[in-house]
């Protein structure tokens, strides 16, 4: 029994082709899940695979923050983000924020094809997985002096 996952897809410009080819090669795996992506990446994946993708704005235009809000609201299980380690991005702070949010809310994060391959072939990908989300209640309710 396949448990439907909510999967975010993002790629820097130099890695869009690799992500497109990755999703196309694994279209059968992605087809039963709910996909979210930043603008150009989402349009490209939808066009290439025919799989519906909920598209946000382009990453530097706010799409990264929209994906981050989805993570913070508990609306994402996995983020596959093919990053370009060789190019400085004007929105590097947005990228760091996504990594931080995935860590904070215990969301699976794959930043290259190898880690994404491991995610897709994990027994948890098609099966049930109860993600432990830490409680930050003590932090939120701390006394500020």
Automatic annotation (TrEMBL):
Single GO cellular component annotation?
cytosol
Q: Which UniProt keywords apply?
A: Lyase
Q: Name one GO biological process term.
A: methylglyoxal biosynthetic process
Binding-site list for substrate: 12, 16, 38-41, 58-59, 91
* Positions annotated as active site in the UniProt record: 64 (proton donor/acceptor)
Reactions catalysed, as given in the entry:
dihydroxyacetone phosphate = methylglyoxal + phosphate
NCBIfam families attached to this UniProt entry? MGSA (TIGR00160), PRK05234.1 (NF003559)
PANTHER family recorded: METHYLGLYOXAL SYNTHASE
Q: What is this protein called?
A: Methylglyoxal synthase
Q: Which gene encodes it?
A: mgsA
